[in-house]
Fold:
Amino acid sequence: MNTTVQTLSQQQPVLWLEDPAAASAPRTGGKAAALAALANRLPVPPGFVVVGAVDPIAVELAYAELADRAGSADGEPLVAVRSSAADEDGLQSSFAGQHETILGVSGIAELLAAIAECRASAHSERALHYRRANGLAPPRAPLPVLVQLLVPADAAAVVFSVNPVTPRSGEVLVNAAFGLGESIVGGTVTPDEWALARGSLAVARRTIADKRRMTVRAPGGSREVDVPAPLRRLPSLSDEQARAAAALALRLENDLGFPVDLELAWTGDDLHLLQCRPITTLAQEAA
Amino acid sequence: MTPQSTDPTAVPFPVTWADPADEALFWQHDAMHFPDPLAPMEAAMLERTLGQGFGYGARAYDAPLAGIEVRTINGYHYQSLVPMTGTPDEMTAQGVLAEAAIRGALARLDELWNETVLPEVQEHLDFWDSFELDAAPRAALAAHVDETWTRLLRVWELHFVIVLPVYLAISEFDELYRGLFPDAGPLDSYRLLEGLPNMTVEVGQELWQLSRTAIESRAVFDVFMSRTAAEIPAALKEMADGRDFLADLHDYFDRYGRRADKWTILAPSWTEDPTPAIESLRDFVRRSEDDAPSVMTQAAAAGREHAVAAARERLRDYPAQVVGQFEAMLAAAQSGNVISEDHNFWIDTMSIHHLRAVLLEAGRRLVDDGALTVAAEVFMLVPEELRAALAEPGEDLRPTVAARVAAMALQRTMAPPPVLGTMPAAPPPDDPFTRFTMKFNGVPQAPGDDGELTGSAGSSGIVRGTARIIRSISEAGRIQAGDILVAETTAPPWTPLFATAAAVVTDTGGVLSHCAVVAREYGIPAVVGTAVATTVIADGMTIEVDGDAGIVRIV
Structure:
C-alpha cells in the first residue's frame, strides 16, 4: 500500500468493510478490523465503519449505498450499530457487552443518533471501570463505530473453536437459539448446545434447551419476546448447520492462528458471520 | 360431596352410586348438551357412544387420559374425565407420545376429515338411508336395530377421532397466538378463524335463500305473513305457487332436515316436524336483504382476512420457524373451526336422527303388538328390553313405560347439581387435552356484582337489548330483531336465530362451544357458561351483553 493512498484513506470518515484499509485495527477497532479482514471471502453482512470526527454527509451517502445494496424498498434499511474500540476484541480482553450495541436502527437521523450514543458509551462508567480493571488507558481517539445491515435472523449462534471451560476436551462448542443473537449474548435465553469433535466434527453432545426468549427484528428496533411454547424445545439449528458453524470456526482458527469466538446468524440456509474474535480467556491462560 | 340446597322447597336429588368406586370420581353435569333428564334409551345410547367413542379417540392420540366415564343419575347426564395415573416418568413418556400423535393429526386435519372420517361416516349414513324401515319384516328390523347400535358405536368412535384434533387445533392455535401477542384480548385469536364456509352456516343461508324464493310469489308471501308456522304447509298446498315452494322446501329438508332442534333422540327431526324451520322462515320472510346471513359471514370473512394480515405483518421479521409454526397452526385451526361445525352436521345430528327413526319403527311394531300405546314410548325402554320385545312379542310394556314417564316427570323438577362425587385433590392436569376440554365446557365462574352475571367471553362486542328466554326452537318467533337470545344452551339447528338476535347469553359452554363459534361467525356478542342466566334473567328484562369481558348486566 503506497503512502498516498494511506494518507487519503486516513482522511476518509467512512471505510467500507471490503476496503483493505478497514482491516487495520488501530484505524477501525478490533471488531470491525477482524470482520473487514474476512469480508471479501466470507459472508459478512455489508457495512461500513465510521472513524474520526463524524461527517454526517459521508454517513448519509454510505447509508444510501447500503440501502441500494440491500435492495431496500424505502431506502431506510434496518442496521446494527456497534462500537469497535481499537483495543476491543483484542487477544487480551474482549470488552464483551461493555460498549453499546444498537440494533434495528432505521433512517439517517436515527443512525446519526445511534452513532453518537455508541461513542458516548466508550466513556460510560461501566466501560471506564472495565478499562481500569484490565489495565487499559481511557480511550483517546473517537471510538470507531461499525454500521452493518441487520440480518433478519431465523437463528443465531455463538461458536467457540475451543471449549473455553474444558480446553483439552477437543471440542468445538456451538450455542444457538431462535432469532437474533442478542438473547444468547445477553444471557436471557438458555441456548441449545452442540459439542462437536474438533477432528471429525462428529456431534459428541447435543442439548436442546427450553428456549423461552428470543430477540426479533421489529419496527423501531429489535425486541425480546417469548418463544411460542410449541417451539421452545425444538432445535434451533440442524446438526448440519451446527457442523458448518464448527467447521467455519476451525477454519478461522487455522487462518488466524488463535482459537476464535464467532457470532453467526442464519436467514433460511444463508449463513452470516457477524463477529470473529480471539477467545480471550484462553489467550490469558496460555500467557 | 353431597348435593345441598338452601331452598327448603327444592326437590331432593338423591344419589345412589351404581358402582361404589364411582363416588371417588369427580362428576360434572353436561348441561350444555343435555340440560334435561334423559329417557332410558337415550341414556343407554350416551353411555355407549360417549364412553366408548371418547376412549377410542383418546387412545388413537395416546392422550394422557384414562377416558370418560358416563353415568345417568336421576336421569341427568354426568361425565367424569378420568386422568391417567402413572409414575412421573410414565406420564412424561405419555405426554411425548401424545404430542407426536397430535402434531401428526394437526398437520393433516383436512385430509383426516375429508378422506378418512367423513367418507366412512357417509357410508354408515347411506346404510341407514337405504334401509326401508316400514317395509322390513320383523326379523330384518330386529337385526337392523342390532346393526344400528354397532354402527352407531363406530360412528362415535370416528366422532372422537376427528373431534379431539379439531378442538386441539383451535385451542393450541389460541395458545400460540396469545404467546406471540401478549397484548391480545381473549377472543382475538378466533377472529383469524371466522367466516369460512361451514355446514351450520350453510343450513342457515339455504333457509334464507328459501325465504327469498317465498318473497318472489305474492301468494306464498301472503301465506307466510298471515298464517302460523303449523298452518303454512297446508295453506301452501292449496295453490300452484305454494306447491312449487313446498317442492323446494322438500328438497331443503332432504339435504338439511335430518336434524332436530336439540341433542336428543326425543326431539323430532325437521323431516318429521318442519314447524321449527318454517318458524324461522316466517321470520326471514319479514326481513330485508340487510339481514341476510351472507352479509354477516362476509363481514366475518373480511374481519378474518384483516386479522390474518395484521398478524402476518407483526411476524414479518420473526424467525422462519416461528412464522412456519404460526402458519401451520393457523391452517389447522381454520380447518378445525370449519370441521367443528361440519362434524356436528354429519355425525351428531345425523346419527341421532337415524337412531330415532330406527327406534320409532321398532316402536310402531310394538304398538301393533299391543305392548306400547304410541311408538315414541320406545324411548322409555332400554335396548335389551326392546331387543327382547322384538324377538318375542307378548309382554305388556305399558306399565314399565308409565312408571318411567312418571319418574322422568319428577326428575324434570329436580335441579341437578353441577358437580357430584369427589372434588379432585389436585388441580386439573396441564395437558393440551384437558386445556381444550375446559375451553369447550367453560370453567366455573365467580359470581359477579349485584345485577351482573359472569361467564366466558364467547364473541366480541357490547350490545343492550331485551332478553328473550328461549327454551326450544319452537319459541323462535318470540325473538325480534335487536332482542338478546338467552338460553340454557344452543344446538346447531338454532343457527337461524343467530341471524335475528343481537346477542346470545347461555348457561353452559366455553369459548370453543358451538354457541360461541356460531356467534363469532354471525358477528354478534356472546357470553357463554354463565350457569344461571336463564334463572336470574327474566324474559323482557333489558340487559347489556359485554362479549369481550364475559359479563352480562341487568339494567
Q: What stands out?
A: Confidence is low (pLDDT under 50) at residues 1-9, 91-97 of chain A. The first helix of chain A runs from residue 3 to 11. Residues 155-286 of chain A form a domain with the D-amino Acid Aminotransferase; Chain A, domain 1 fold (CATH 3.30.470.20).
